[in-house]
Amino acid sequence: MKRFLYLKVKHSGPRIAEACFQFTPKVSLYGDTHLYLEIGSTAKVFGGEMNLLLKADELLSSFFEPTERQWVVGDRMEWARSCVQPRDMWLPPGKQQGFFWALPVQQLAQCGDPMTLGEVEREREQLALFMMRVGLKRVGDFAGLSCDAVTHRFGNLGLELHEWVHGKKELLPPLYVAQEKIQETVDGEEIPSLETLLFILRAVLVRFEAQLKGRAQAAKVLKFEFVLESSAPLLKYLEISDPCQDTTSLVRLLQDFFRNLSWDSPLVCLHLQIAETVAYSTAQLSLFEKLENRSEELGKFIGRLRGRFGEEEVGVPELLESYLPEKSWRLSWPVSKKPTARGREFPDRPLFLLPKPTPFPFPDRYVLKPSEEVWAEWWNGGGQRRYFIAEKESSPSLWIFSEEKKWFIHGAFD
């Protein structure tokens, strides 16, 4: 048996439609306010139909106040709009017809194909008023008439409506396809400070999270356009090293990203957009280890650090092909899955290097063991370095080199 969830909302129908993809791929949108979800084949996935409705209600709460939306669950979508009540309605399987037929005959104006209801609604309302004048009070009174009686009294329009009331017509609703970017605009008068900005953005990101889940995507780049009253717009881009959907993670990134943000003119509005996304997939988690969870937590932490200190300052070491030790690595993120090839076998080198080699005035106090010789690139002036491991009792071994008859310390061994 087919089951439908009908949602009547005051605005933002396309955004709700794509957020509902996390419940079912069969979502149809008519106008900007009428949504239909076929949930008969997916309700069991969510632990039953009522559990699915709880999740849908939670989703709607992030977009609207309770008075701004209504929903009806039933067997036939052509009756759904007629069954809308001040309160949300859940009609058990097989019970929608009895409820519908007991409604006032005026509700016939909302029965039929959602695609054409706007065109025939006025004519239907006039027909329903005429039915009331001839003594029909309930939808069931009209349904009980024979086809010949309906045609004789109400013409072809009445006969077509009679077929809708008896469920003799089948609908093939067009499926909604998300096309626009995920974006939202906030009024500048609502943002007097950075603290308020983060508070407002949390609510916006909750809605973004719902849309991302519906699209099965994760945010990779966020674009912020601060429209100022008397200055050029201020553009900010946040590239997320570990793309995600989670609101809490995104808010933490923004706390660091906006730490030193300021604007020199009254703010008119803020345009927030997810400029780039990637496909979202959850890794299969081990039943016995938490390595995947730890990796995810590390990724989020590194993402926050990169947002705060800069993408060139935080990451993990990646080997590069260079003879000079200080140029043979760089910071990168995320971690490359490809093994780094080495052109040759390297001699022993310390784990900890100084940011920059510094003069070493006491080589004669250490025992020097030759380690390796390297050559600087010719385009940087060339030159030869002779490296030694400097050892001394009760002291860590040092990594030093000689260049142009001068000694420098470059690192230390544990």
Description:
With 414 residues, the chain is α+β, with helices and mostly antiparallel strands. It has three domains: 4-165, no CATH class; 183-308, 2-Layer Sandwich (Dna Ligase, domain 1), CATH 3.30.1490.100; 350-412. The protein is 29% helix and 28% strand. The chain has nine helices and 16 strands. The strands form four sheets. A five-stranded mixed beta sheet has the order 2-3-1-4-5, with helices on one face. The protein has a five-stranded antiparallel beta sheet with strand order 12-16-15-14-13, with no helix packed on it. α7 runs antiparallel to α8 and α8 (247-257) packs parallel to α9 (291-309). The model is unreliable at 283-292 (pLDDT under 50).
How are the strands of the biggest sheet laid out side by side?
A: 2-3-1-4-5
Average pLDDT taken over every residue: 84
- Classify the beta-strand content into a percent band: 25-35%
Main beta-sheet annotation: 5 strands, mixed
Q: What's the overall geometry?
A: elongated
Radius of gyration: 34 Å
**Which structural class fits the helix and strand makeup?**
alpha+beta
The count of domains is 3
